[in-house]
């Protein structure tokens, strides 16, 4: 069949339209598919670049820490770990450097919310710092052609000075045993602040949290003194060993867990002796002195009243017991004629002064008694007419707390019909103080008088007939804790010019001399010490009356090292940094501290904010302000003079200054370097100068100012960790 040519042409036209339509649809689909592929590729690339930018931030943080280490090494001298005030001021802000030479405006880095992650007190200082320099990051293998992934810039800001706003405040100020006793000087309503922090806000993670949640409680709404985190490792720098050292936890030397009533037999004195040696205290190389000091620490802890476990003499041990403080021997000689017979009458008397200078203790002086166990006077060759022995009945004490009392133990007469030959006589006396309930000996003195006539009457010839002569020997203890050696002029003072001071403070005490306590009050805990500063109540040397372990200078024997070594940490956060350059931060450790001579003494007042600032100023002026560093709290004993704190009006003397430091000891630390790193990272093609992705972050980093110990590859480096990282949306 032959089709019409016109009809055939029409069919071909329709087919062409259909084909073109199909091709158009395919083209549209192809373009759409290509566009989708391109979009997906770009999205994938952007996602990859965004991930790269985040990874570059991870590169920026260790680069910043490396730069901090390098900067500290350049600034600090050999063996120094902490910046002095002038060094810290000049090097507080560390912008990135050593890169391309191109910089990123620091004002841009601080724009938006970035500044909220820094303490307000340093914000202006950061804004005036040098711009950080871009550092190109090469991701190619070593030795190959560089393939730059991107670039980073950062600024690291030292915020080590500030107080941990999550932990400070809310506790009543007492012995400094909890960091909650630290004052928050810039908080206007402390009670509401601490209540909301505990029950509503939870933990501050950043400065922004503090400002947002607590800003209404802060002076001017600005957090000058607080930061959200702190960290102080429990070990300390031992200056003698030149390395990081573990504190000695006294509890490890005590069997059981009842630390308020510790039996002496449950205390391992050998462990304490070893800890004394490890501390590096000036007497640590003398085993006998270490042993005596260890026994003294045991007595401070145990629940009995027997000094040195009854090991007399040669003890520096202290218990809250009445102590023999002055002894007077009186011998009256007279003649009496009766029936033509001349009788020689010798009348003897022993006066013993006991002193109970202890305050705030659980024992009462009335729990004890005194005995004259023997008084023997006789010739060096026996003569029955002259020999006699006196032994009295025990006397129960009536001494008052922190007072004196005098006991005339016996008045005895002995009559002979011949003239006593005292030129050949000698005497021996034994005095004992005992606990009533147990009969335990708590103080003891035995002494001999070799030449009775010469020492008693200051002449070798006794009185002539018809005369009455009274001779006496009076000796006064300097420090009654050191009273066992009657012949030692350091322990007992005697002079022909001295008159007895029975019932009064002895003459010429060295308690107010250089290096001495400066007060007569004594204290024994009879339980676990609350603050390691309480060890400052203890004598450490039998040749040093009234000189106890020091926390402040002068400390020629470096006894403050013992306190630091025995200061086992109860936590690793919240302390006040002794190396701070902000005296208000340092003052926070002293505000409302009790002003007292010894623990549990009735405080005369508390430290005002003004005087707390004076204390902080004195510590700062003699420490970091003078170009020194506190490697540990033991350096207080080398750098800070007790006299400078003692001159502050509410303190008044060196002794109370020591007590104030003791009650702040558990609130102070040194081992912290805290930094906020503001970092920017860009995925960047240097040749094209195209930025394809950018991320910014605020990173809080802790760095250990002490170098690592050990022989591994990390020796001499500084440990560090990231506390938190916040991505910024700018």
Average pLDDT, all residues: 85
Number of helices: 15
Provide the helix percentage. 25-40%
Question: What structural class should be given to the helix and strand makeup?
Answer: alpha+beta
**What is the straight-line distance between the termini?**
80 Å
Sequence-ordered SSE layout with sheet pairings:
Elements (H helix, E strand, L loop, with lengths): L4 H71 L9 H7 L1 E3 L10 H4 L10 H8 L7 E4 L9 E11 L4 E2 L25 H12 L5 H8 L11 E2 L8 E3 L4 E3 L23 H11 L7 H15 L21 E16 L2 E16 L11 E12 L8 E3 L4 E2 L6 E14 L8 E11 L5 E9 L2 H6 L10 E10 L14 E2 L66 H6 L10 E2 L5 H5 L6 E2 L9 E2 L2 H14 L13 H4 L2 H5 L7 H9 L5 E2 L3 E13 L4 E14 L16 E9 L2
Helix pairs in contact: 7-8
Outline the structure in words.
The chain is α+β, with helices and mostly antiparallel strands and 730 residues long. The protein folds into 4 domains: 52-160 and 672-728, no CATH class; 163-233 and 569-669, no CATH class; 249-316 and 523-548, no CATH class; 323-493. 25% of the residues lie in helices and 23% in strands. It contains 15 helices and 24 strands. It has helices at 5-75, 85-91, 106-109, 120-127, 190-201, 207-214, 269-279, 287-301, 452-457, 560-565, 583-587, 609-622, 636-639, 642-646, 654-662, and strands at residues 93-95, 135-138, 148-158, 163-164, 226-227, 236-238, 243-245, 323-338, 341-356, 368-379, 388-390, 395-396, 403-416, 425-435, 441-449, 468-477, 492-493, 576-577, 594-595, 605-606, 668-669, 673-685, 690-703, 720-728. The strands form 7 sheets. Strands 1, 2, 3, 22, 23 and 24 form a 6-stranded antiparallel beta sheet that branches. Strands 13-9-8-16-17 form a 5-stranded antiparallel beta sheet. Helix 7 (269-279) packs across helix 8 (287-301). The radius of gyration is 40 Å and the shape is rod-shaped.
